[in-house]
Design brief:
The protein has 533 residues and is α/β, with parallel strands linked by helices. Among the domains are: 82-286 and 387-460, Metal-dependent hydrolases (TIM Barrel, Alpha-Beta Barrel), CATH 3.20.20; 299-385, no CATH class. The chain has helices at residues 9-16, 99-102, 121-131, 143-151, 160-175, 195-207, 223-237, 257-269, 301-309, 311-328, 352-359, 365-377, 390-398, 421-436, 442-449, 451-456, and strands at 6-7, 27-36, 45-52, 55-60, 67-72, 77-80, 82-84, 106-111, 136-139, 141-142, 180-184, 211-215, 241-243, 274-278, 283-287, 336-340, 382-386, 402-404, 473-476, 499-502, 505-509, 512-513, 521-522, 528-529. The structure holds zinc ion.
C-alpha cells in the first residue's frame, strides 16, 4: 500500500480545523475507518477507535476528533490484541521484542505451561518489568519445576514434609503474581505424580483464584482417562481447568475428537469449568524424551545414560517403545522430525528415518531407535511430531470453549528448525481456517483469540474493543492475512497484519516492529501492573 496509514498530528489538525491545535488532542491515537470485530463474537461494525492513556477511550464515529497519531484502518479489521495463553515464552526477558508473537498479532502471552516455569516467579516478573518487553506477560507456576526443586527426578510420591515444601513453593509463586498452576504429566518428573499430589498443589493456586492448566497425561490411547483425571482435579480443587493444546496424537485414535468434547461438555454440565486451547496444525512439538518410557528417564543424565548403555535395559526400553508405537498406530518414527539438536545441527529438519539412514546406515525401525538412543545419550533433542488428523483439529476448533494458542517459545530468526506455529498460528487460523476452509467465522475466530482466553485466565480488562479496556489492538486485512511459516522454512512472519498496538503504543507499524516495549505484567482479575518506564 503506497499511502501512509500513520499520519502525524499536524496533518490531522489541518484536516480537523486549526481550532483544536491549542488544546490537548482528544486521543493519543485514533484508529479510523476500520471494521471493529470487538472480540465478543458479535458481528463486525464500521467504527473508529480512540485511545487515550493506554486505554480504549471511545468506539464509534469519531470523525473530526483530534489525535496525536492516526492509523487509517479502512478496509481492515480492528480486533482486540490476541491473547496467547499457551506459550513457553518464559525467557522473554532475553528476547524482549518477542517479534514472532507480536508480528502474528499476539499482545499478551502466558508462560509457565506444561509444568515448566521459573521457580522464583517474583524474580522473573521483576526482571521482565525492569527490561521492558513488547507484549503483556503472565505466567503459571509449573508442577515439574516445583517437584524437581524438592524431589529431584525421583520416581516416588513426596512424603508429608516434601509435599508441604511443594505447596509452599506454589503458594509463594501465586503470592508473587502467578495466575495458576500447570502440569506436564507426560514429562519427567511430573509423570511420576499421582492425582492426590496434583490436587493438593492445584488447591493452593485455586484458593487465591488461580486456574489449573494441564498438559494431559495421555493425548491418544488413554486420552479418556487423562481428561477424566483433569476434570477430577478441577472438581476437587474447585478451580477452572484449562486443557492445554487439546489434540488426538495417535493415528489409532483419530476421529475421536467428538468423544473427548462430549466428556468435556458433560463435566461442564456437572459444574466443573473445563476449557481448552489448541493450535492450528497437525504436528506437535516437544522433546525426544517423550518417546521414551518415563521410568527410563528417572534421575540425572548419568543414570539415564547408564540405562541406555546397559544392553538388557536398552532391550526393555526398545521393546516398550515399539509396543507404544504399535498401539498408537505408527509403523516407525518417520512422523518425528528433529527441530533442534545442538550436538549436530546438520540433523535439524530431518525425520528420524532420515537420521537413521544418515548415522546408522539404515532407515529401519531398529536403526531409528538406535539413533534416538544415541541422541538421548547426548541430552536429547527438540522435535516436531506429525501426529494429528485435520478433522480432529477442525472439530476441536469449532467447540465454543476451545481458545487459540500457539504453544510456542520466543524465537530468534534463523535459529534451529522450530515448529512454524511460533510464527504463524493466529494468521493461519484467520487465513486457512476462516477464509479458505470456513471452519470458523471471522468473528468467532477473533473471540477465540481474545475474550475467550481472557475469561479463562481472568484478564478482566483485556480481550474486547470496548471503552475502559486496555488498548491492545491487532489490525489485519481479512482478505490477505496468512501464515507463511512452513515446517521446512519456519522463520517467516505472516502477511496481512500491518498494525499491532499494546497498551496504546504502536509495536508493529506497516508490518514492521517499531522496537517499542510497552508490555505489562498481568495478574488475575484485572489487577494489572503498569511498569515503571
Ligand atoms: Zn505441553
Amino acid at each position: 500500500m503506497a499511502r501512509p496509514r500513520v499520519l502525524s498530528l499536524a496533518l490531522v489538525v489541518a484536516a480537523a480545523g486549526a481550532v483544536a491545535a491549542q488544546t490537548r488532542p482528544a486521543f493519543d491515537l485514533l484508529v479510523g475507518g476500520g471494521t471493529v470485530v470487538d472480540g465478543s463474537g458479535g458481528p463486525g461494525v464500521r467504527a473508529d477507535v480512540g485511545v487515550r492513556d493506554g486505554r480504549i477511550a471511545a468506539v464509534g464515529r469519531l470523525t473530526g476528533a483530534t489525535a496525536h497519531a492516526v492509523i487509517d484502518a479502512s478496509g481492515l479489521v480492528v480486533a482486540p490484541g490476541f491473547i496467547d495463553v499457551h506459550t513457553h515464552a518464559d525467557d522473554i526477558a532475553d528476547t524482549p521484542r518477542a517479534e514472532n508473537f507480536v508480528r502474528m498479532g499476539v499482545t499478551t502471552v502466558v508462560a509457565g505451561n506444561c509444568g515448566t516455569s521459573a521457580l522464583d516467579i517474583g524474580e522473573e516478573l521483576s526482571r521482565i518489568k525492569q527490561v521492558g518487553v513488547s507484549v503483556n506477560f503472565a505466567t503459571l507456576v509449573g508442577h515439574n519445576t516445583v517437584r524437581e526443586a524438592v524431589l529431584g527426578r525421583a520416581d516416588r510420591p513426596p512424603d508429608a514434609v516434601e509435599l508441604s515444601k511443594m505447596k509452599g513453593l506454589v503458594w509463594k509463586a501465586m503470592a508473587d503474581g502467578a495466575v495458576g498452576f500447570s502440569t506436564g504429566l507426560q514429562y519427567v518428573p511430573g509423570a511420576y505424580a499421582d492425582i492426590v499430589e496434583i490436587i493438593s498443589l492445584a488447591r493452593v493456586a485455586a484458593d487465591v483464584g488461580g486456574l489449573y492448566a494441564t498438559h494431559l497425561r495421555n493425548e491418544g490411547t488413554r486420552i479418556g482417562e487423562a481428561v477424566d483425571e483433569a476434570i477430577r482435579v478441577g472438581a476437587a480443587a474447585g478451580c477452572p481447568v484449562e486443557i492445554s493444546h487439546l489434540k488426538i496424537d495417535s493415528p489409532s485414535r483419530w476421529g475421536q475428537a467428538g468423544k473427548v468434547l462430549a466428556q468435556i461438555d458433560a463435566a461442564r454440565t456437572s459444574g466443573v469449568d473445563v476449557e481448552a486451547d489448541e493450535y492450528a496444525y497437525t504436528a506437535g512439538s516437544s522433546g525426544l524424551g517423550i518417546r521414551f518410557p518415563d521410568w527410563a528417564l528417572e534421575g540425572g543424565r548419568d543414570q539415564v545414560r547408564a540405562r541406555l548403555d546397559d544392553p538388557a535395559t536398552w532391550a526393555r526400553i526398545q521393546a516398550e517403545m515399539k509396543q507404544t508405537l504399535a498401539e498408537r498406530g505408527f509403523d516407525d518414527l518417520s512422523f518425528a522430525v528433529v527441530a533442534s539438536y545442538s550436538p549436530d545441527p546438520s540433523l535439524d529438519g530431518l525425520s528420524m528415518k532420515q537420521v537413521a539412514a544418515r548415522i546408522e546406515g539404515s532407515p529401519s525401525l531398529d536403526a531409528q531407535l538406535e539413533a534416538a538412543r544415541a541422541m538421548m545419550r547426548e541430552g536429547g533433542a527438540s522435535m516436531v511430531y506429525h501426529l494429528m488428523s485435520d478433522d480432529d483439529v477442525a472439530r476441536f476448533m469449532r467447540h465454543p470453549e476451545v481458545a487459540i494458542a500457539s504453544d510456542a517459545s520466543v524465537l530468534t530468526s534463523g535459529e534451529g528448525m522450530p515448529h512454524p506455529r511460533g510464527y504463524g498460528n493466529n494468521a493461519r487460523v484467520l487465513g486457512l481456517f476462516v477464509r479458505e476452509r470456513h471452519v470458523l467465522t471471522l468473528e468467532d475466530a477473533v473471540r477465540k483469540m481474545t475474550s475467550l482466553p481472557a475469561r479463562h485466565f481472568k484478564f478482566a480488562d483485556r480481550g474486547l474493543v470496548k471503552p475502559g479496556y486496555a488498548a491492545d489492538l491487532t489490525i489485519f486485512d481479512p482478505a490477505r492475512v496468512a501464515d507463511t511459516a512452513t515446517y521446512t522454512a519456519p522463520h517467516a512472519y505472516p502477511v496481512g497484519i500491518p498494525f499491532v498496538i499494546v497498551n496504546g503504543v504502536v509495536v508493529v507499524s506497516h508490518g514492521e516492529h517499531t522496537g517499542a516495549r510497552p508490555g505489562q505484567v498481568l495478574g488475575i482479575s484485572g489487577e494489572w501492573t503498569r511498569h515503571d518506564r
